[in-house]
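lol ok so funny story. i was supposed to be doing the assay writeup but got distracted and ended up predicting the structure for this chain instead. priorities right. anyway since i did it might as well share w the group, maybe its usefull for someone
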Amino acid sequence: MHAWPASEVPALPGKGRDLRIHDTATDGLVTLDPGPVARIYVCGITPYDATHMGHAATYNAFDLVQRVWLDTKRQVHYVQNVTDVDDPLLERANRDGHDWTELAERETALFREDMIALRMLPPRHYIGAVEAIPGIVPLVERLRDAGAAYELEGDVYFSVESDPHFGEVSRLDAEAMRLLSAERGGDPERPGKKNPLDPMLWMAAREGEPSWDGGSLGRGRPGWHIECVAIALDHLGMGFDVQGGGSDLAFPHHEMGASHAQALTGEHPFAKAYVHAGMVALDGAKMSKSKGNLVFVSKLRRDGVDPAAIRLALLSHHYRADWEWTDAVLQEAVERVGRWRAAVSRPDGPSADALVEEIRAALADDLDAPSALAAVDRWAALQQAEGGTDEGAPGLVSRAVDALLGVAL
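and the output, tada:
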């Protein structure tokens, strides 16, 4: 599976700062110190509807992570998956009378278009669950053979008790985990499981559903969590720098994935930091496909909304905050991009050297994009009120906003 073309990231004078970011597993800020190549895995979409503002906010957050790292003169090895076979996708295809593969391909293509429009930097490896199956099967077999997994009526389950570090990512108690498992794709009430929280690794073939050769596992398809583990281990290895996604992935997805990997390798941790973006609401409820209360990037683009304004609307909220999408949020972003473009269109202006450092400092401090935007606002207001004599300032501001915030002026 291919990703999308990368927009050019302008080079800036000087060097950026190391990123300090909130780690869910420790519930505190950690300073990331990757080697020359920073490694990040961000969980991708299940392509039965793409791309709503909740998706966009999440991928915007991890795009900022990449940009901060690039500004420190590191390379970035970014991996993202596509869950192109799963129950929600199959259910949507059946509901609408579509072939599930065609639905997945169409929505993935639309997602790529949205990512291009929003200037999200692409992953180096963009891997679908289906194409990862040959690498998933041996991992499930290894877990089973090591006693970390067991069979139940043809299905294979992971035993959470096989990982002594289980629970360290989300830091939830057993009852909270059980409730979330039931809400987020688990089956804690299924009889015969060793532990209600045990997640499925391999689902035996069901009539009328797609299945693949699973070797000694029999025909079937992979569970959700092992998909990302197989892809991450293959392309990044253990102990990569950041595991990212929305806050609703901390449990069960990231918790289970970490335990799968740790049981497979005997190493800990799976990722050095677990970073989670907040949820975006609409009309008082979390924006989600199941509720249908969605604002789509593609619909806004068709309505003529500037993608730069969409991105600024996302950046105006801290990535960890839960917030609500409104017409006022978008209108404020439209006005902001207009002010910024007017400011950088002049032949000279106030010196921007300090501004670049302000943006760098804000982003290095747990991706504080709202403070970075406020700094650019102040420069633009000074430009409007007093102007300046630095002929290179408008160009430097334009390049910095592009390189660090992903907004093309």
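The longest helix spans residues 53-71. The chain has two domains: 20-286, 305-405.
back to the writeup now i swear
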